[in-house]
Structures are given as C-alpha cells and as structure tokens.
Amino acid sequence: YRSSLKLAFEHGCHSIAFPLISSGIYGYPRRDALEVATCAIRGFLEIHDMDVKLVIFNRSDVQIPPGTLSAVDDWLQEHLPETQTIRRLSDTIAMDRLCESTLLQPSAAPESVFRPDFSRMFGKLDEPFDVYLMKLIDHRGMSDVQVYRRANLDRRLFSKIRSGKGYHPGKRTILALAVALELTLKETEALLERAGYALSPADKFDVVMEYFLEHGPRDIDEINEVLFHYDLPLLGGS
After folding, report:
1. Which of its termini does the chain have fewer beta carbons within 10 Å around, N or C?
2. Rounded to whole angstroms, how far apart are CA atoms 17 and 67?
C-alpha cells in the first residue's frame, strides 16, 4: 500500500483505488488485511491530499467485532422496531391529510394577518453553520487539517464549507465532522440544526449514528464498517 501510494503521489495522481490485498486466494485473514490497509492509507493521508478508495468485493470481507455488531443490533431493536416505524408512517400520513384539508379551507381572516415581518425575523437569525463549525473547532483546540482528515473529507470540500459562500454541506458530511470533533449527541443535533437537518428516529442510518454518538467509537473507519454491514451510506469521502 505504501509503495503504491508513494508512486501515485510522485506521478501526480489525484486518486487511487485498492483491492483488499492478499485476502483472496492467498488466504490472509480479512480482518487483519482490512486493518493493515486502513492503517497504511490513514498514515499516508495524514501528510498528503489524495482521494483513496479501498474496494471491498464481498460484504464478508468486513468482519466487525461481534461485540460491536450485537450492541448495534440491540440498539436498533430498541429504537427502531418495525411496528414503531409503521405507526410513525401512518401518523405522518394522517398529519399530511390534516394539513392538506387545512390548506384547502378558505380563510376569512384579513390578509394582513399573514404578512410576517421578515426583516425583524432575519435580524434574529442564529450564527450560520460555517461560523458555528469554526467556533467548535477552536473550542476543541484542533486544526482544520486535523478535522477534515479525521472526518475523511477532501480538503477542497472543507474549504468550501469554511468559506461560507453559500455552500450547503450534506447531512452525512456534517455527521462526519461531528465524529471528527468528538461531539456529543446533543452537540451534533445542534450542529445539524444550523444546516437545517435533524436526526430522524424513523431512519435506520440516523439511528445507527445515534448509537455511535452516544457510545463510540469516534473513528470514521470503524463506523463505516458497521454502516457497510447494514448496507447504509458511508461517512466522509469527497
């Protein structure tokens, strides 16, 4: 891995992809192979900027420690039971119908009632996401480089976020930053709020992320292994 990464850097490559070397017919233990790969790639990315992908051809290649998987399974059973999901869905449908019927009703109230003073409302806005994020980074005593590398984010993407020039980061990007900054669940929810997002109790990805924000580990690679196991979107990336 190190030799290939060095060559890629010397040739000016912007990206490189690896298979899980030696874990096929050579029989190298897959868990060990994954740890070797992530350790080498992470060491390289600490001092270089490059898009590095590790291609897993079989879901069984990612062998998660049994304790972690059983704990997440128990958390999902407790916080995302199937009947609860169905009930929330029916409640949502009922609320949508109520809203539709309300919206269709003619109103006899004077038109002026429905004209809010936006100028006053805008004056009460909280700090924008980028300003709030930078304050969190300073509060944690971390550098920008430490944060975007721990979040597995591209430097150029982080620069867009930092600039505050209308760039709106996605929810998974914000969660990756929360993991990198070791935010608590409550702090993460506050950060998501600044960008107009929230964690949903009816979304499997969100419920898994709640588990890690509550219990750890605060490591992108370990979290992504579990997300991969459940066939959920991964954190970080460009």
Report:
1. C
2. 30
pLDDT tens-digit series, residues 56-84: 777 766 778 778 888 998 888 888 765 44
CB–CB of 195/174 below 8 Å? yes
Same domain flag for 49 and 136: no
Is this prediction's pTM over 0.85? no
* Same domain (yes/no): 71, 189: yes
Same domain for 236 and 213, yes or no, is: yes
Other C-beta atoms closer than 10 Å to the C-beta of 120 total 8
pLDDT tens-digit map of 100-146: 554 555 545 555 555 555 445 444 446 788 888 999 999 999 999 88
- State the residue range of the domain holding 13: 2-57
CA distances to 63, 70, 82, 172 from 42, rounded to whole Å, are 19, 27, 38, 20
N-to-C CA span, the chain: 21
